[in-house]
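This entry is retained here.
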Amino acid sequence: MMTMNLEGLEMIAVLVVVVVFVKVLEQFGLLADGYDDSVEDELELSAVRHRPEGLEQLEAQTRFSRKELQILYRGFKNECPSGVVNEETFKDIYAQFFPQGDASTYAHFLFNAFDTDHNGSVSFEDFVMGLSILLRGTIQEKLNWAFNLYDINKDGYITKEEMLDIMKAIYDMMGKCTYPVLREETPRQHVEVFFQKMDKNKDGVVTIDEFIDCCQNDENIMRSMHLFENVL
């Protein structure tokens, strides 16, 4: 069981659960070693339904080296031969790591955060761009990504209801596996406290500036920003 208090839940709510994310990377074969340069040929010649952008363009758009992109693509293609990941696949992966909980809603929100063009699938480009931010991005970039996760309807604001939806999803996924067990009302109580702290002008919504300012002044959240470093 995992010991967790409200501060721990807050850290997890701002970023993806790092342990689970590492497991997802392992699931895609992205932490394995031993790939050779033939991967480049596969990247350029493989007959997949969705062809990724050229290596040079992705190297320019991300913080990954050419070799790292080759390794990432090999793992992605092995798991997703079609070249894209749909939401059900995303849910299946998360369900493997939370068999005692319900990870489907959280996986849905996370999938939408990666599906930046909102076409119902995550391409290799979508995946690697998000991964680059989470693993190698600046604090500002990571917080922008986290804000996008919370901003469920993508209107540029976070409402209390949206924050509660994310918190409930996290609780459903892992709350019953914590010690002490989180009470059912815990997510709502936490949201009340956290939202009031973020909503500086008390207008009922949290802007990107309010979100970033609050997070940057929270020691626990700033510490969580470094959890993904050196994963890959």
The first strand starts at residue 2 and ends at 3. Confidence is low (pLDDT under 50) at residues 1-19, 32-36, 43-49. The beta strands are 2-3, 84-86, 121-123, 158-159, 178-179, 205-206.
